[in-house]
Each structure stands twice: as structure tokens, then as C-alpha cells.
Amino acid sequence: MAKPNILITCPMSREYVAKLNADPRVNKAQQLPRETWPIFAEIYNGGAKAAAGGPRGMGPSFEEADIIICQGLPHGSVKWAPRLKWVQEWGTGIEYLAGSGVFEAGISVTNLAGTAAVPIAEHVLMMMLMLSRNAKTFMENAHKRQWRPTPPLVEVFNKTVGVVGLGGIGGRVAEVCHALGMRVLATRRTATLRQRDVQGVDELLPPADLPYLLQESDFVVLSCPLTKETEGLIGEKELRAMKPTAFLINIARGRVVDEPVLKLALKEGWIAGAGLDVFWNEPLEPESELWHLPNVVLTPHRAGNEGLRVAEAFAIFDDNLDRFLSSRPLTNLVDPSLGY
Question: Domains of the chain (ranges plus CATH)?
């Protein structure tokens, strides 16, 4: 196999780019300049219309690329990269590859599934404790230098957490919740019947048992990928099925939840509150009501914090580069029919 050219279109350390360039098996590893990243994001967020102007000076870089490391690709960009054989998504979700044409062209796509499980589970735990202990009110009172009692606080011990999507992240969430003495229910796409005490949870449920999970849970944690089946999964019926004392935590993708209905549920008290790391539109609009709702803990899509697990990410890519160069099967392959 000829030495490949690697195009990197996302943030990555200079040291690692230099390491790739020092690899005698690689012809060239080129990272797009930082100033191109906003343009790049505009192209794929803007869809086909924004992409109509072409790669905007990035054409030669795409034309030479055999491998692309990215966080999403522009609409139609497979046409810019005639040599492309492999795309490494520098994250877990693949929704920003939709419209690029890579799946339709049969190009291999791999991701970093599993690397974010630990930091995301800890982020979920932070949100659970902040919501149950009313930390937002404590912090606001401290900022105002006001010594005030808060509404009754909630213990997580002996509570039930429902994990929607028992993959690598959901499994780690289940593990830390068990350590706190919580009962754990979970749905999994491949589950076909209800089972007890399997796969690290008290009850494993098929997707059709989501209503049961919602009714039973004091915390509902969304950790499923965004697919055709999960888009809009949590709407009015599901939010009304939850306990009025329950909390929703979304570290999956914003469009798993009907956001306008969620705002109404939070304002009218259908549920007690929500911890949100993902949203329909990101960055979240400054005028969004979610910023100001007292029963919402909000973070700017940072649960995964890829910087914490960067060594794992590099190890996955290094292993796959070895496999690619020796014509062996790649690991962490994305199945486009499943969406992850």
C-alpha cells in the first residue's frame, strides 16, 4: 500500500500531528489551520446550501487525503476527496457526517466509542447530586451572600435510576449509581425481554419497556445515540409518564428530547428538574429560557471532555492505523444502518 496522506480537520495537539508525520509509513499528516475551523463548521452546520460554494480553499487538502480525522464533514465533501478510504470521527456521535456522502460511498468510518464513558458518567453523577441537593440555589445564595434555607433536599441512596441506552457510557453510569446504593433499570436496543440482574443492572429492558422505566425512575439518564429511532424519543407522553419528583438528565444528543415540550414540563412541574449537556441548537441561544429556569443544571456540551481521555483516543487511532496499513479489519467501525 502506498504511504497515505492524513488530513486532520479538528483540534489536535501539535505533538501528535508531529508524531504522525514522523511515522515512516505515513506520507504526510496535515492539520487544517485553526482559522479554517469556524468556516468548516459553518459548511456542515449549514447543510447543502452552505456547502454549495465548495471547500473554500481547502480543496487541495481534501483531494490528497486518504484518511481524514474529523468532528463531522461538510455536506457533499466526499466529492472533494477522490482518494478517501477511511474517516476517523474524533468523537462518538456521527450525526455531523450525515450528508457528507461517506456512508453512501462505502467508505469505512470509525469512532472513539468508549473513550468518554468515565468522564460522562462522572458528569451525570455531578448533575444528579446538584439537582437532588439543590446546589444551584445554594450557589446563587452564596453569590448574593444570603444565608437562606432551601427547599427539602433529596438523597440519591435507595432511589431508582433509569438508563436509556446501556452502551459503554450507560454501563459506566449504572456502575457508579450502584456504588451509591441505587437501583438501576436500563433499556438496550438488543434486549428482547425483561431480565433481572444481568449486564450490571437490576433490570434490563427492551426498548418497548421505556414507559415502565419512566414510571419507576427517580432519575432518567439519556445515554443513547441519536438515530432515526431515538430522535424525539422523549416527548410529552414520556415526560408526563415520569414522576413529578423525578429528574431528567440528557448527555446523549439534544434532539433525543422534544425541547419545547421539555421547557413546558419544567415550568409547569411535570418533572422536578433536568440536567442538560446537549441541546437542539449549539451553542444554546442566549435568549433560551433554559438558561434561567431554576430547576435546570446546564453545561455547554462538555460532559465527554475529550481532553481527559486523549491518550485512549490516540491509542484507538494508532491501532487502527496499524490495521489500515496492513489491510486488517478496523476496530470501532460505525454501522451506518444503526447510526453508531
Answer: 5-114+306-325 (3.40.50.720), 117-298 (3.40.50.720)
